[in-house]
Amino acid sequence: MRASLLQIDVNEGESVESRRLRVASLVREQARADLVVLPELWTTGAFAYEDFGSEAEPLEGPTYDAMAKAASDAGVWLHAGSIPERTASDSGSAAGDGPLYNTSLVFSPSGDLAAVYRKIHRFGFDKGEAVLMGAGQELVTVRLPSTTLGVATCYDLRFPELFRGLVDAGAETLVVPAGWPERRRAHWTLLAQARAVENQAFVLACGTAGTHAGVPQAGHSIVVDPWGEVLAQAGAGEQVLTVEFDPGKVAVTREQFPALKDRVLGLGTPRR
Known about the structure:
Elements: E1 2-7, E2 9-10, H1 16-28, E3 35-37, H2 49-55, H3 62-74, E4 77-86, E5 100-107, E6 113-118, H4 129-132, E7 140-143, E8 148-151, H5 160-168, E9 173-177, H6 185-199, E10 202-206, E11 209-212, E12 215-216, E13 222-224, E14 230-233, E15 239-244, H7 249-256
Parallel strand pairs: 1-3, 2-11, 3-4, 8-9, 9-10
Antiparallel strand pairs: 1-15, 4-5, 5-6, 7-8, 10-13, 11-12, 13-14
C-alpha cells in the first residue's frame, strides 16, 4: 500500500481559497498513491481561533467539493484532513447557524464521501477550540480494500482509550491529521509510536508546517509500523511524505505477539 501524507504549510499570507486550490492540485499529483492524507484545519490553521467562525463551512461546502473532485481525479482514497464545520441549528430552521465542529472528511477514489469524523477531544482547556467547537460523539472506521482505517485528530492522540475503541472496531491503520505545535514536537513522535506499539497498528500522523496565529508548527509528519518502527518522517517545512507499507504486517504482528488478547477490562475503581 502506498500512502502520501501532505504536510501543508499554512501561510497566513495565502487566502483560504488559494490554499484550497493549491492543495487540490497537490492531491491530484498523488495519482500513484492508494491513500492521501491531509492535516488538521489546513484551510484556516489550527490555532487561528479568531478565523474559525468566519471561515467555517457547511459539511458539503467548498472544501468538500474541491476534495471530492481531487480524490476522483487522482483515483485515490483521500483523508481530506479537517475543516471548521458550521452545522445547522438544532431547530433546523436555518442552515449555518448551529454549533461548530472540527470535522474530518474521507473520500473514496470515486469522490464519494466515505466517512465523517467530528473530533472528540478538543484542545485548549478553557479557551480556543475547547470552547468554540462542539465535541464529536462517535468513533469512525473506514474499510479500504487492503486495510481498515481508524480516524482520529490531533489532541485525540493523547487519549489511548479512543484508539483502543478503534481497534475493537477493526482498525488496523490509525490516521491522525494534526496541527501540532513545535514546542511539543517530542510528544508528537513519542505518542505516535506509543499508539502504534500498544495497538499493534500502523500510525499515519500528518501535521502542518508554517505558523498559525503566531504558533510555529511541528511538521515532522510520521509513519510508524505495528512494532513502533518509524518507516518515514518529514522535516519541518511543507513536504509530501510518501511511504509504501504492507498492511498484512498488522495481522502477523498480532499473531506473533498476541498482547491484545491479554487485555483485562472492567477493573473498576481502585481501593483506597
